[in-house]
Amino acid sequence: MPPPPPSPADQRTLPSRLQDYDRGYAAFDWAQARREVTDLGGGRLNIAYEALDRHLDGPGADRTAIRFLPRDGGDPLAITYRALNARANQFANLLAERGLQPGDRVYCLAHRIPDLYAAALGTLKHGCVFTPLFSAFGPEPIRSRVEIGEPAAVVTTARLYRRKMADWIAETPCLRHVLLIGDVDEAPEGTVDAARAMDALSAEYTTRPMDPEAMALLHFTSGTTGRPKGAVHAHEAVVLHRVTAEQALDLQPGDVYWSTADPGWVAGMSYGIIGPFAAGVTLVVDEAEFDAERWYRILDEQRVNVWYTAPTAIRMLMKCGPELPARYDLSALRFIASVGEPLNPEAVHWSRATLGLPFHDNWWQTETGGIMIANFRCLPIKPGSMGRPVPGIEAAVVRRDDAGGIERIDAADETGELALRKGWPAMFRGYLHEEARYRKAFSGDWYLTGDLVRRDVDGYYWFIGRGDDVIKTSGHLIGPFEVESALMEHPAVAEVGVIGVPDEVTGERIKAFVALKPGHAPDDELRRALMALARKRLGAAVAPREIAFADQLPRTRSGKIMRRLLRARELGLPEGDTSTLEGGDDRLRPCASPTAGGG
User: Which residues form the AMP-dependent synthetase/ligase domain (predicted)?
Assistant: First the structure.
Protein backbone atom coordinates (compact mmCIF):
# COMPACT_ATOMS: atom_id res chain seq x y z
CA MET A 1 0.00 0.00 0.00
CA PRO A 2 1.22 3.57 -0.64
CA PRO A 3 2.42 5.45 2.44
CA PRO A 4 -0.35 7.38 4.16
CA PRO A 5 -0.25 11.14 3.62
CA PRO A 6 0.91 13.24 6.54
CA SER A 7 -1.85 14.25 8.92
CA PRO A 8 -3.24 17.78 8.47
CA ALA A 9 -1.41 18.91 11.57
CA ASP A 10 1.88 17.84 9.99
CA GLN A 11 1.35 19.28 6.50
CA ARG A 12 2.72 22.74 7.12
CA THR A 13 5.81 21.40 8.89
CA LEU A 14 6.50 18.84 6.14
CA PRO A 15 9.85 19.73 4.50
CA SER A 16 9.54 21.16 1.00
CA ARG A 17 10.40 18.96 -1.97
CA LEU A 18 13.12 21.44 -2.94
CA GLN A 19 14.81 22.27 0.36
CA ASP A 20 17.77 24.43 -0.70
CA TYR A 21 17.13 26.52 -3.79
CA ASP A 22 20.70 27.70 -4.45
CA ARG A 23 22.18 24.24 -4.02
CA GLY A 24 19.40 22.62 -6.06
CA TYR A 25 19.76 25.17 -8.85
CA ALA A 26 23.55 24.77 -9.04
CA ALA A 27 23.40 20.96 -9.07
CA PHE A 28 20.47 20.53 -11.47
CA ASP A 29 21.08 18.72 -14.74
CA TRP A 30 18.46 18.08 -17.45
CA ALA A 31 20.28 14.94 -18.56
CA GLN A 32 19.85 13.47 -15.08
CA ALA A 33 16.19 14.52 -15.00
CA ARG A 34 15.73 12.81 -18.36
CA ARG A 35 17.24 9.58 -16.98
CA GLU A 36 14.54 9.54 -14.29
CA VAL A 37 11.88 9.21 -17.01
CA THR A 38 11.19 5.67 -18.23
CA ASP A 39 13.22 4.74 -21.31
CA LEU A 40 10.96 2.71 -23.59
CA GLY A 41 13.89 1.61 -25.74
CA GLY A 42 16.41 3.54 -27.74
CA GLY A 43 15.81 6.73 -25.77
CA ARG A 44 12.10 6.75 -26.62
CA LEU A 45 9.42 7.75 -24.13
CA ASN A 46 5.74 8.66 -23.92
CA ILE A 47 3.97 11.26 -21.78
CA ALA A 48 1.14 8.86 -21.03
CA TYR A 49 3.54 6.15 -19.89
CA GLU A 50 5.02 8.54 -17.32
CA ALA A 51 1.56 9.63 -16.20
CA LEU A 52 -0.02 6.16 -15.93
CA ASP A 53 1.84 2.97 -16.90
CA ARG A 54 4.86 3.48 -14.69
CA HIS A 55 2.66 3.49 -11.57
CA LEU A 56 1.17 0.05 -12.30
CA ASP A 57 4.02 -2.16 -11.10
CA GLY A 58 3.96 -0.92 -7.52
CA PRO A 59 1.60 0.15 -4.77
CA GLY A 60 0.72 3.31 -6.70
CA ALA A 61 -1.55 1.31 -9.01
CA ASP A 62 -4.35 1.31 -6.46
CA ARG A 63 -3.86 4.88 -5.33
CA THR A 64 -6.69 7.22 -6.30
CA ALA A 65 -5.71 9.15 -9.43
CA ILE A 66 -8.92 11.20 -9.77
CA ARG A 67 -11.42 12.20 -7.14
CA PHE A 68 -14.30 13.43 -9.29
CA LEU A 69 -16.87 15.78 -7.75
CA PRO A 70 -20.13 15.87 -9.75
CA ARG A 71 -21.69 19.22 -10.52
CA ASP A 72 -24.97 18.26 -8.83
CA GLY A 73 -23.31 17.54 -5.50
CA GLY A 74 -23.58 13.76 -5.74
CA ASP A 75 -21.13 11.36 -4.14
CA PRO A 76 -17.49 11.75 -5.24
CA LEU A 77 -16.18 9.13 -7.66
CA ALA A 78 -12.72 7.69 -6.94
CA ILE A 79 -10.76 6.42 -9.97
CA THR A 80 -7.50 4.58 -9.29
CA TYR A 81 -4.42 4.77 -11.47
CA ARG A 82 -5.12 1.19 -12.56
CA ALA A 83 -8.68 2.05 -13.59
CA LEU A 84 -7.71 5.29 -15.35
CA ASN A 85 -5.00 3.44 -17.27
CA ALA A 86 -7.51 0.81 -18.37
CA ARG A 87 -9.93 3.48 -19.59
CA ALA A 88 -7.15 5.30 -21.45
CA ASN A 89 -6.21 1.98 -23.06
CA GLN A 90 -9.79 1.57 -24.25
CA PHE A 91 -9.67 5.03 -25.82
CA ALA A 92 -6.36 4.23 -27.52
CA ASN A 93 -7.97 1.07 -28.91
CA LEU A 94 -10.90 3.15 -30.14
CA LEU A 95 -8.54 5.42 -32.06
CA ALA A 96 -6.81 2.39 -33.56
CA GLU A 97 -10.15 0.84 -34.52
CA ARG A 98 -11.12 4.07 -36.28
CA GLY A 99 -7.91 4.04 -38.29
CA LEU A 100 -6.07 6.91 -36.64
CA GLN A 101 -2.29 6.76 -37.01
CA PRO A 102 0.53 8.17 -34.85
CA GLY A 103 0.89 11.87 -35.59
CA ASP A 104 -2.81 12.38 -36.34
CA ARG A 105 -4.29 15.23 -34.33
CA VAL A 106 -7.14 14.73 -31.87
CA TYR A 107 -8.96 17.78 -30.53
CA CYS A 108 -10.93 17.72 -27.29
CA LEU A 109 -13.80 20.07 -26.48
CA ALA A 110 -15.33 18.99 -23.20
CA HIS A 111 -16.07 19.98 -19.63
CA ARG A 112 -14.24 18.40 -16.70
CA ILE A 113 -15.58 14.84 -16.85
CA PRO A 114 -13.62 11.60 -16.23
CA ASP A 115 -13.48 10.46 -19.86
CA LEU A 116 -11.77 13.72 -20.84
CA TYR A 117 -8.72 12.56 -18.88
CA ALA A 118 -8.88 9.09 -20.38
CA ALA A 119 -9.14 10.61 -23.86
CA ALA A 120 -6.14 12.89 -23.34
CA LEU A 121 -3.90 10.10 -22.09
CA GLY A 122 -5.29 7.50 -24.52
CA THR A 123 -4.52 9.85 -27.41
CA LEU A 124 -0.92 10.14 -26.25
CA LYS A 125 -0.64 6.39 -25.67
CA HIS A 126 -1.54 5.82 -29.33
CA GLY A 127 1.06 8.37 -30.49
CA CYS A 128 -1.51 10.89 -31.68
CA VAL A 129 -1.32 14.61 -30.93
CA PHE A 130 -3.69 15.99 -28.31
CA THR A 131 -5.16 19.50 -28.55
CA PRO A 132 -7.40 20.82 -25.76
CA LEU A 133 -10.04 23.43 -26.59
CA PHE A 134 -11.84 25.63 -24.10
CA SER A 135 -15.42 24.41 -23.75
CA ALA A 136 -16.78 27.96 -23.54
CA PHE A 137 -15.50 28.85 -27.01
CA GLY A 138 -18.17 29.75 -29.53
CA PRO A 139 -18.44 28.06 -32.93
CA GLU A 140 -16.09 30.42 -34.79
CA PRO A 141 -13.06 30.12 -32.49
CA ILE A 142 -13.46 26.34 -32.57
CA ARG A 143 -13.77 26.29 -36.33
CA SER A 144 -10.73 28.51 -36.87
CA ARG A 145 -8.59 26.22 -34.72
CA VAL A 146 -9.87 23.18 -36.59
CA GLU A 147 -8.98 24.81 -39.90
CA ILE A 148 -5.45 25.60 -38.69
CA GLY A 149 -4.67 22.27 -37.05
CA GLU A 150 -6.66 19.91 -39.32
CA PRO A 151 -7.53 17.26 -36.73
CA ALA A 152 -8.54 13.79 -37.77
CA ALA A 153 -10.90 13.50 -34.80
CA VAL A 154 -12.59 15.62 -32.18
CA VAL A 155 -13.69 14.41 -28.76
CA THR A 156 -16.64 16.30 -27.34
CA THR A 157 -20.02 15.92 -25.67
CA ALA A 158 -23.35 15.61 -27.44
CA ARG A 159 -24.51 18.97 -26.08
CA LEU A 160 -21.37 20.86 -27.13
CA TYR A 161 -21.42 19.20 -30.55
CA ARG A 162 -25.00 20.26 -31.24
CA ARG A 163 -24.46 23.81 -29.99
CA LYS A 164 -21.04 24.56 -31.43
CA MET A 165 -20.03 22.20 -34.22
CA ALA A 166 -22.95 20.57 -35.99
CA ASP A 167 -23.68 23.54 -38.27
CA TRP A 168 -20.25 23.64 -39.92
CA ILE A 169 -18.71 20.22 -39.42
CA ALA A 170 -19.56 19.07 -42.96
CA GLU A 171 -17.37 21.86 -44.36
CA THR A 172 -14.19 20.52 -42.70
CA PRO A 173 -13.23 17.35 -44.62
CA CYS A 174 -10.10 16.83 -42.49
CA LEU A 175 -12.30 15.94 -39.51
CA ARG A 176 -13.18 12.29 -40.05
CA HIS A 177 -14.44 11.31 -36.59
CA VAL A 178 -16.58 12.96 -33.92
CA LEU A 179 -16.30 10.94 -30.71
CA LEU A 180 -18.83 11.74 -28.00
CA ILE A 181 -18.04 11.26 -24.33
CA GLY A 182 -20.24 11.82 -21.30
CA ASP A 183 -23.96 11.06 -21.32
CA VAL A 184 -25.25 10.41 -24.83
CA ASP A 185 -28.99 9.75 -25.15
CA GLU A 186 -28.77 9.42 -28.92
CA ALA A 187 -25.66 10.10 -30.99
CA PRO A 188 -26.35 12.63 -33.75
CA GLU A 189 -25.80 11.44 -37.31
CA GLY A 190 -22.12 11.26 -38.19
CA THR A 191 -20.96 10.91 -34.58
CA VAL A 192 -19.94 7.97 -32.40
CA ASP A 193 -21.00 7.28 -28.83
CA ALA A 194 -17.39 6.87 -27.76
CA ALA A 195 -18.20 6.06 -24.14
CA ARG A 196 -20.31 3.07 -25.20
CA ALA A 197 -17.82 2.01 -27.86
CA MET A 198 -14.97 2.08 -25.35
CA ASP A 199 -16.92 -0.18 -22.99
CA ALA A 200 -16.80 -2.92 -25.64
CA LEU A 201 -13.05 -2.65 -26.31
CA SER A 202 -10.08 -4.24 -24.58
CA ALA A 203 -8.59 -2.54 -21.55
CA GLU A 204 -5.15 -3.76 -22.65
CA TYR A 205 -2.92 -1.61 -24.84
CA THR A 206 0.84 -1.31 -25.16
CA THR A 207 1.73 2.36 -24.90
CA ARG A 208 3.62 3.38 -28.02
CA PRO A 209 7.29 4.40 -27.54
CA MET A 210 7.81 7.83 -29.11
CA ASP A 211 10.82 9.80 -30.21
CA PRO A 212 11.37 12.53 -27.60
CA GLU A 213 10.97 15.15 -30.35
CA ALA A 214 7.72 13.67 -31.68
CA MET A 215 4.82 16.10 -31.55
CA ALA A 216 2.57 15.33 -28.58
CA LEU A 217 0.60 18.50 -27.80
CA LEU A 218 -0.72 21.40 -29.84
CA HIS A 219 -1.78 24.40 -27.76
CA PHE A 220 -3.40 27.47 -29.26
CA THR A 221 -2.63 30.93 -28.00
CA SER A 222 -4.11 34.21 -29.20
CA GLY A 223 -1.91 36.88 -30.71
CA THR A 224 -2.54 40.60 -30.39
CA THR A 225 -3.77 40.54 -33.99
CA GLY A 226 -4.62 37.92 -36.54
CA ARG A 227 -5.43 34.23 -36.16
CA PRO A 228 -4.46 32.09 -33.17
CA LYS A 229 -1.01 30.53 -33.05
CA GLY A 230 -0.61 26.78 -32.63
CA ALA A 231 2.35 26.10 -30.31
CA VAL A 232 3.84 22.64 -30.87
CA HIS A 233 5.16 20.62 -27.90
CA ALA A 234 7.00 17.29 -27.89
CA HIS A 235 6.81 14.17 -25.72
CA GLU A 236 10.01 15.22 -23.97
CA ALA A 237 7.96 17.98 -22.29
CA VAL A 238 7.00 15.48 -19.59
CA VAL A 239 10.51 15.80 -18.14
CA LEU A 240 9.85 19.42 -17.19
CA HIS A 241 6.23 18.78 -16.20
CA ARG A 242 7.33 16.21 -13.66
CA VAL A 243 10.26 18.27 -12.30
CA THR A 244 8.24 21.47 -11.87
CA ALA A 245 5.24 19.67 -10.37
CA GLU A 246 7.56 18.47 -7.65
CA GLN A 247 9.86 21.47 -7.21
CA ALA A 248 7.68 24.50 -8.04
CA LEU A 249 4.34 23.08 -6.79
CA ASP A 250 5.87 20.94 -4.02
CA LEU A 251 3.86 17.83 -4.94
CA GLN A 252 4.85 14.94 -2.67
CA PRO A 253 3.83 11.28 -2.30
CA GLY A 254 0.33 10.89 -0.91
CA ASP A 255 -0.74 14.45 -1.73
CA VAL A 256 -4.25 15.49 -2.64
CA TYR A 257 -3.88 18.17 -5.31
CA TRP A 258 -6.44 20.52 -6.82
CA SER A 259 -5.80 22.53 -9.96
CA THR A 260 -8.77 24.72 -10.87
CA ALA A 261 -7.35 25.41 -14.35
CA ASP A 262 -9.73 24.53 -17.15
CA PRO A 263 -8.46 21.54 -19.16
CA GLY A 264 -9.01 23.58 -22.33
CA TRP A 265 -5.93 25.68 -21.58
CA VAL A 266 -2.24 24.81 -21.38
CA ALA A 267 -2.25 25.14 -17.57
CA GLY A 268 -5.03 22.57 -17.37
CA MET A 269 -2.95 20.14 -19.40
CA SER A 270 0.53 20.71 -17.96
CA TYR A 271 -0.55 20.95 -14.31
CA GLY A 272 -4.10 19.63 -14.43
CA ILE A 273 -3.22 16.30 -16.06
CA ILE A 274 0.42 15.55 -16.91
CA GLY A 275 2.32 17.02 -13.96
CA PRO A 276 0.17 15.64 -11.12
CA PHE A 277 -0.17 12.18 -12.67
CA ALA A 278 3.56 12.02 -13.39
CA ALA A 279 4.08 12.88 -9.70
CA GLY A 280 1.64 10.10 -8.71
CA VAL A 281 -0.70 12.22 -6.58
CA THR A 282 -4.49 12.31 -6.24
CA LEU A 283 -6.10 14.94 -8.45
CA VAL A 284 -9.35 16.59 -7.37
CA VAL A 285 -11.58 17.25 -10.40
CA ASP A 286 -14.59 19.50 -9.79
CA GLU A 287 -17.20 19.42 -12.55
CA ALA A 288 -18.76 22.72 -11.42
CA GLU A 289 -17.61 26.25 -12.13
CA PHE A 290 -16.54 28.80 -9.54
CA ASP A 291 -18.60 29.08 -6.39
CA ALA A 292 -16.87 30.50 -3.34
CA GLU A 293 -18.62 28.38 -0.74
CA ARG A 294 -18.28 25.23 -2.80
CA TRP A 295 -14.55 25.88 -3.23
CA TYR A 296 -13.93 26.30 0.48
CA ARG A 297 -15.97 23.17 1.15
CA ILE A 298 -13.84 21.22 -1.34
CA LEU A 299 -10.63 22.37 0.32
CA ASP A 300 -12.06 21.24 3.65
CA GLU A 301 -13.81 17.96 2.80
CA GLN A 302 -11.27 16.68 0.27
CA ARG A 303 -8.35 17.56 2.58
CA VAL A 304 -6.51 19.30 -0.25
CA ASN A 305 -2.76 19.66 0.37
CA VAL A 306 -1.67 21.62 -2.71
CA TRP A 307 -3.95 24.09 -4.48
CA TYR A 308 -3.19 25.78 -7.82
CA THR A 309 -5.63 28.47 -8.94
CA ALA A 310 -5.92 31.77 -10.82
CA PRO A 311 -5.55 35.37 -9.59
CA THR A 312 -9.02 36.18 -10.90
CA ALA A 313 -10.52 33.47 -8.72
CA ILE A 314 -8.42 34.64 -5.77
CA ARG A 315 -9.80 38.14 -6.15
CA MET A 316 -13.32 36.71 -6.28
CA LEU A 317 -12.64 34.95 -2.98
CA MET A 318 -11.24 38.14 -1.50
CA LYS A 319 -14.48 39.95 -2.33
CA CYS A 320 -16.41 37.45 -0.21
CA GLY A 321 -14.59 38.51 2.93
CA PRO A 322 -12.97 36.46 5.72
CA GLU A 323 -16.16 35.15 7.31
CA LEU A 324 -16.79 32.43 4.72
CA PRO A 325 -13.39 30.67 4.91
CA ALA A 326 -13.48 30.93 8.69
CA ARG A 327 -16.31 28.36 8.66
CA TYR A 328 -14.11 25.68 7.08
CA ASP A 329 -11.12 23.63 8.19
CA LEU A 330 -8.28 24.46 5.79
CA SER A 331 -5.52 22.96 7.90
CA ALA A 332 -4.74 20.26 5.31
CA LEU A 333 -3.37 22.90 2.96
CA ARG A 334 0.42 22.97 2.75
CA PHE A 335 1.11 24.96 -0.41
CA ILE A 336 -1.01 27.29 -2.53
CA ALA A 337 0.01 28.84 -5.84
CA SER A 338 -1.42 30.96 -8.63
CA VAL A 339 -1.18 30.93 -12.41
CA GLY A 340 -2.45 32.85 -15.40
CA GLU A 341 -1.52 36.48 -14.78
CA PRO A 342 0.58 38.44 -12.28
CA LEU A 343 -0.68 38.16 -8.72
CA ASN A 344 -1.19 41.45 -6.91
CA PRO A 345 0.72 41.80 -3.61
CA GLU A 346 -2.56 42.41 -1.80
CA ALA A 347 -3.68 38.86 -2.66
CA VAL A 348 -0.56 37.43 -1.02
CA HIS A 349 -1.14 39.45 2.15
CA TRP A 350 -4.82 38.48 2.16
CA SER A 351 -4.17 34.76 1.81
CA ARG A 352 -1.57 34.80 4.56
CA ALA A 353 -4.00 36.54 6.91
CA THR A 354 -7.15 34.66 5.88
CA LEU A 355 -5.98 31.19 4.84
CA GLY A 356 -2.85 30.99 6.97
CA LEU A 357 -0.63 30.52 3.89
CA PRO A 358 0.67 32.92 1.25
CA PHE A 359 -0.10 32.37 -2.42
CA HIS A 360 3.05 31.62 -4.43
CA ASP A 361 2.94 33.21 -7.86
CA ASN A 362 4.78 31.77 -10.83
CA TRP A 363 5.38 32.71 -14.45
CA TRP A 364 5.25 30.83 -17.71
CA GLN A 365 3.68 30.94 -21.16
CA THR A 366 1.97 28.61 -23.60
CA GLU A 367 5.24 28.63 -25.52
CA THR A 368 7.35 27.56 -22.53
CA GLY A 369 5.07 24.59 -21.84
CA GLY A 370 5.57 24.76 -18.09
CA ILE A 371 6.67 26.88 -15.15
CA MET A 372 9.87 28.86 -15.76
CA ILE A 373 10.02 31.25 -12.78
CA ALA A 374 8.41 30.62 -9.42
CA ASN A 375 8.12 31.59 -5.80
CA PHE A 376 9.34 28.38 -4.19
CA ARG A 377 8.17 27.08 -0.85
CA CYS A 378 11.76 27.01 0.42
CA LEU A 379 12.35 30.71 -0.35
CA PRO A 380 10.94 33.89 1.17
CA ILE A 381 8.11 35.41 -0.86
CA LYS A 382 8.37 38.93 -2.19
CA PRO A 383 4.69 39.81 -2.76
CA GLY A 384 4.15 40.89 -6.37
CA SER A 385 7.27 39.10 -7.60
CA MET A 386 7.35 36.34 -10.22
CA GLY A 387 10.01 34.59 -8.14
CA ARG A 388 13.29 33.01 -9.25
CA PRO A 389 14.09 30.71 -12.19
CA VAL A 390 13.28 27.02 -11.96
CA PRO A 391 16.39 24.83 -11.66
CA GLY A 392 17.57 24.11 -15.19
CA ILE A 393 16.22 27.40 -16.56
CA GLU A 394 18.60 30.25 -17.37
CA ALA A 395 16.80 33.58 -17.50
CA ALA A 396 18.14 37.00 -18.41
CA VAL A 397 16.97 40.57 -18.85
CA VAL A 398 17.85 41.85 -22.33
CA ARG A 399 17.26 44.72 -24.71
CA ARG A 400 16.99 44.35 -28.48
CA ASP A 401 19.36 46.30 -30.70
CA ASP A 402 18.71 47.83 -34.11
CA ALA A 403 20.44 44.94 -35.89
CA GLY A 404 18.03 42.36 -34.48
CA GLY A 405 20.38 41.09 -31.79
CA ILE A 406 20.14 41.38 -28.03
CA GLU A 407 22.24 42.81 -25.24
CA ARG A 408 22.10 41.43 -21.70
CA ILE A 409 21.29 43.83 -18.89
CA ASP A 410 23.22 42.68 -15.83
CA ALA A 411 22.48 45.64 -13.55
CA ALA A 412 19.73 45.12 -10.98
CA ASP A 413 16.35 46.83 -11.28
CA GLU A 414 16.78 47.79 -14.94
CA THR A 415 13.77 47.17 -17.17
CA GLY A 416 14.20 44.91 -20.19
CA GLU A 417 12.71 41.93 -21.97
CA LEU A 418 12.72 38.52 -20.30
CA ALA A 419 14.75 36.00 -22.28
CA LEU A 420 15.23 32.28 -21.64
CA ARG A 421 18.15 30.22 -22.92
CA LYS A 422 16.94 27.48 -25.26
CA GLY A 423 17.08 23.81 -24.32
CA TRP A 424 14.49 23.04 -21.65
CA PRO A 425 12.37 19.95 -22.46
CA ALA A 426 8.95 21.64 -22.69
CA MET A 427 10.04 24.51 -24.95
CA PHE A 428 7.71 24.78 -27.92
CA ARG A 429 9.15 23.32 -31.12
CA GLY A 430 7.33 25.62 -33.51
CA TYR A 431 4.19 27.51 -34.45
CA LEU A 432 2.17 25.21 -36.67
CA HIS A 433 2.52 26.29 -40.33
CA GLU A 434 4.34 29.48 -39.27
CA GLU A 435 8.07 28.82 -39.36
CA ALA A 436 9.02 32.47 -39.92
CA ARG A 437 6.98 33.54 -36.93
CA TYR A 438 8.68 30.89 -34.83
CA ARG A 439 12.18 31.97 -35.87
CA LYS A 440 11.31 35.56 -35.02
CA ALA A 441 10.72 34.50 -31.39
CA PHE A 442 14.44 33.74 -30.93
CA SER A 443 17.71 35.60 -31.01
CA GLY A 444 20.57 33.12 -31.20
CA ASP A 445 20.27 30.79 -28.22
CA TRP A 446 17.63 32.90 -26.48
CA TYR A 447 13.83 32.74 -26.60
CA LEU A 448 12.42 36.27 -26.37
CA THR A 449 9.24 36.18 -24.33
CA GLY A 450 7.87 39.63 -25.17
CA ASP A 451 7.41 40.31 -21.44
CA LEU A 452 9.12 43.25 -19.80
CA VAL A 453 10.64 42.56 -16.39
CA ARG A 454 13.24 43.70 -13.92
CA ARG A 455 15.49 41.57 -11.73
CA ASP A 456 16.32 42.75 -8.23
CA VAL A 457 19.57 42.30 -6.32
CA ASP A 458 18.33 39.01 -4.82
CA GLY A 459 17.62 37.47 -8.21
CA TYR A 460 13.82 37.79 -8.02
CA TYR A 461 12.07 38.78 -11.24
CA TRP A 462 9.29 41.37 -11.33
CA PHE A 463 6.75 41.59 -14.13
CA ILE A 464 6.40 45.03 -15.71
CA GLY A 465 4.06 44.23 -18.59
CA ARG A 466 3.90 42.91 -22.10
CA GLY A 467 6.19 44.66 -24.52
CA ASP A 468 3.18 46.27 -26.14
CA ASP A 469 1.59 47.16 -22.78
CA VAL A 470 4.39 49.20 -21.27
CA ILE A 471 3.70 52.91 -20.85
CA LYS A 472 6.36 55.59 -21.33
CA THR A 473 5.41 58.84 -19.67
CA SER A 474 7.73 61.79 -19.08
CA GLY A 475 10.70 59.54 -19.79
CA HIS A 476 9.59 56.88 -17.27
CA LEU A 477 8.81 53.29 -18.27
CA ILE A 478 5.67 52.33 -16.36
CA GLY A 479 4.25 48.82 -16.13
CA PRO A 480 0.45 48.70 -16.00
CA PHE A 481 0.63 45.96 -13.38
CA GLU A 482 2.36 48.25 -10.92
CA VAL A 483 -0.39 50.87 -11.23
CA GLU A 484 -3.11 48.22 -11.13
CA SER A 485 -1.62 46.69 -7.98
CA ALA A 486 -1.65 50.05 -6.22
CA LEU A 487 -5.28 50.76 -7.06
CA MET A 488 -6.28 47.22 -6.09
CA GLU A 489 -5.31 48.06 -2.52
CA HIS A 490 -8.41 50.24 -2.18
CA PRO A 491 -11.23 48.25 -0.56
CA ALA A 492 -13.80 49.46 -3.13
CA VAL A 493 -11.88 48.15 -6.15
CA ALA A 494 -12.63 44.78 -7.75
CA GLU A 495 -10.66 44.94 -11.01
CA VAL A 496 -8.33 47.40 -12.73
CA GLY A 497 -7.00 47.74 -16.26
CA VAL A 498 -4.37 50.37 -17.07
CA ILE A 499 -3.29 51.68 -20.48
CA GLY A 500 -1.25 54.53 -21.93
CA VAL A 501 -3.09 57.23 -23.87
CA PRO A 502 -1.15 59.50 -26.28
CA ASP A 503 -0.32 62.87 -24.75
CA GLU A 504 1.33 65.84 -26.48
CA VAL A 505 3.35 66.83 -23.42
CA THR A 506 4.34 63.61 -21.66
CA GLY A 507 4.26 61.16 -24.59
CA GLU A 508 1.65 59.01 -22.86
CA ARG A 509 -0.57 59.63 -19.90
CA ILE A 510 -1.76 56.79 -17.73
CA LYS A 511 -5.44 55.97 -17.73
CA ALA A 512 -7.04 53.45 -15.39
CA PHE A 513 -10.33 51.66 -15.93
CA VAL A 514 -11.79 50.57 -12.60
CA ALA A 515 -14.59 48.12 -11.81
CA LEU A 516 -15.98 48.42 -8.30
CA LYS A 517 -17.20 45.92 -5.75
CA PRO A 518 -20.94 45.91 -5.03
CA GLY A 519 -22.12 48.68 -2.75
CA HIS A 520 -19.64 51.34 -3.85
CA ALA A 521 -20.69 54.38 -5.87
CA PRO A 522 -18.56 55.50 -8.86
CA ASP A 523 -18.46 59.14 -7.85
CA ASP A 524 -15.91 61.95 -7.85
CA GLU A 525 -15.11 61.43 -4.19
CA LEU A 526 -14.00 57.85 -4.84
CA ARG A 527 -12.10 58.93 -7.95
CA ARG A 528 -10.18 61.49 -5.88
CA ALA A 529 -9.46 58.88 -3.20
CA LEU A 530 -8.06 56.49 -5.81
CA MET A 531 -5.91 59.23 -7.30
CA ALA A 532 -4.55 60.05 -3.86
CA LEU A 533 -3.81 56.40 -3.13
CA ALA A 534 -1.97 55.98 -6.44
CA ARG A 535 0.09 59.12 -5.89
CA LYS A 536 0.94 57.97 -2.40
CA ARG A 537 1.97 54.52 -3.50
CA LEU A 538 3.60 55.35 -6.84
CA GLY A 539 4.46 59.04 -6.92
CA ALA A 540 2.85 61.71 -9.07
CA ALA A 541 4.85 60.79 -12.19
CA VAL A 542 3.57 57.22 -12.16
CA ALA A 543 0.01 57.67 -10.87
CA PRO A 544 -2.83 57.66 -13.41
CA ARG A 545 -3.96 61.03 -14.75
CA GLU A 546 -7.41 59.67 -15.55
CA ILE A 547 -9.69 57.13 -13.89
CA ALA A 548 -12.79 55.84 -15.64
CA PHE A 549 -15.32 53.64 -13.90
CA ALA A 550 -16.72 50.63 -15.75
CA ASP A 551 -19.33 48.04 -14.86
CA GLN A 552 -16.93 45.34 -16.03
CA LEU A 553 -13.63 45.09 -17.88
CA PRO A 554 -13.00 42.99 -21.00
CA ARG A 555 -11.34 39.75 -19.96
CA THR A 556 -10.39 36.50 -21.59
CA ARG A 557 -12.26 33.47 -20.34
CA SER A 558 -9.14 32.48 -18.43
CA GLY A 559 -9.45 35.74 -16.47
CA LYS A 560 -6.83 38.04 -18.00
CA ILE A 561 -7.85 41.66 -18.45
CA MET A 562 -7.41 42.54 -22.12
CA ARG A 563 -5.50 45.81 -21.94
CA ARG A 564 -5.03 45.86 -25.70
CA LEU A 565 -8.82 45.81 -26.09
CA LEU A 566 -9.17 48.70 -23.63
CA ARG A 567 -6.57 50.57 -25.66
CA ALA A 568 -8.19 49.75 -28.99
CA ARG A 569 -11.60 50.94 -27.79
CA GLU A 570 -10.15 54.06 -26.24
CA LEU A 571 -8.27 55.02 -29.40
CA GLY A 572 -10.70 53.67 -32.00
CA LEU A 573 -8.24 51.03 -33.26
CA PRO A 574 -8.98 47.53 -34.66
CA GLU A 575 -9.74 45.09 -31.85
CA GLY A 576 -7.90 42.08 -33.35
CA ASP A 577 -8.56 38.53 -32.18
CA THR A 578 -11.33 38.51 -29.57
CA SER A 579 -12.07 34.78 -29.67
CA THR A 580 -11.00 34.33 -26.04
CA LEU A 581 -13.03 37.28 -24.75
CA GLU A 582 -15.29 36.42 -21.83
CA GLY A 583 -18.86 36.23 -23.10
CA GLY A 584 -22.29 36.67 -21.68
CA ASP A 585 -22.47 33.41 -19.69
CA ASP A 586 -21.31 34.20 -16.18
CA ARG A 587 -18.51 31.70 -15.67
CA LEU A 588 -17.26 33.21 -12.42
CA ARG A 589 -19.78 34.11 -9.79
CA PRO A 590 -18.29 36.42 -7.16
CA CYS A 591 -19.94 34.91 -4.10
CA ALA A 592 -22.45 32.17 -3.55
CA SER A 593 -25.09 32.55 -0.89
CA PRO A 594 -24.26 30.87 2.42
CA THR A 595 -26.62 28.02 1.61
CA ALA A 596 -25.56 27.45 -2.01
CA GLY A 597 -24.65 23.89 -2.76
CA GLY A 598 -23.50 23.80 -6.38
CA GLY A 599 -21.62 25.61 -9.07
Answer: 60-432
